[in-house]
Design goal:
2 domains, 149 residues, binds coenzyme A, 8 strands
């Protein structure tokens, strides 16, 4: 079921995403992913990377003028925010914060997420919003931190 959660501003709508939205979500994901993790070879940045990453998860999107400009994917069984990507062209305008808040409003308890330590911008963003570090680990891609709110 898709439904509109909140009309946060005249030009910003946040709602749950459905399968029809997935290509547009993948485009936003790839643009923001490439910005945050630019060192992969060109063939790494393909829509399939997004489609595979969201299996079993619920997606939420922010739209401006009917266009998807940010996407969040959450795995509810563990209250785990798996990913949050805002179109680079509209970052820094409160869209990531609003989309994250909309997801957290639906959570039944404490939420967690993991973030690459090298992605200092995102780690600072989450800490600014009150997430606190509760763990760390090492992946093939490098060290990560676990954050909780
Ligand atoms: C990280 C990201 C999701 C933030 O979204 P955004 O829309 O640009 O951020 P917002 O404009 O909503 O910022 C919200 C608040 O965080 C603050 N903030 C944003 N970036 C910050 C940073 N690097 N350090 C500290 N605070 C930051 C803003 O000042 C704002 O504060 P306020 O609400 O008190 O005014 C976005 O930049 C992005 O998509 N990055 C690339 C993909 C990525 O790294 N995703 C996270 C990994 S899953």
């Amino acid at each position: 079921m898709r439904w509109i959660l909140n009309e946060l501003a005249p030009d910003l709508t946040i709602r749950q995403a459905g399968p029809d939205d997935h290509p547009a979500c993948a485009a936003v994901f790839l643009a923001a992913y490439r910005q945050a993790f630019p060192l992969h070879p060109p063939e790494y940045y393909v829509p399939e990377r997004y489609f595979e990453s969201i299996t079993g998860e619920e997606q939420w999107v922010a739209l401006q003028d009917g266009r998807i400009i940010a996407v969040l994917s959450v795995y509810w069984p563990e209250n785990f925010i798996h990913s949050l990507y805002v179109d680079p062209a509209v970052q820094g305008r409160g869209i990531g914060r609003r989309l994250l808040a909309a997801a957290l409003a639906r959570a039944k308890g404490v939420c967690e997420l993991k973030c690459d330590k090298a992605n200092k911008r995102a780690v600072s963003f989450y800490k600014h919003l009150g997430w606190r570090e509760v763990g760390e680990g090492m992946a093939e891609t490098g060290p990560w931190v676990r954050l909780r709110k």
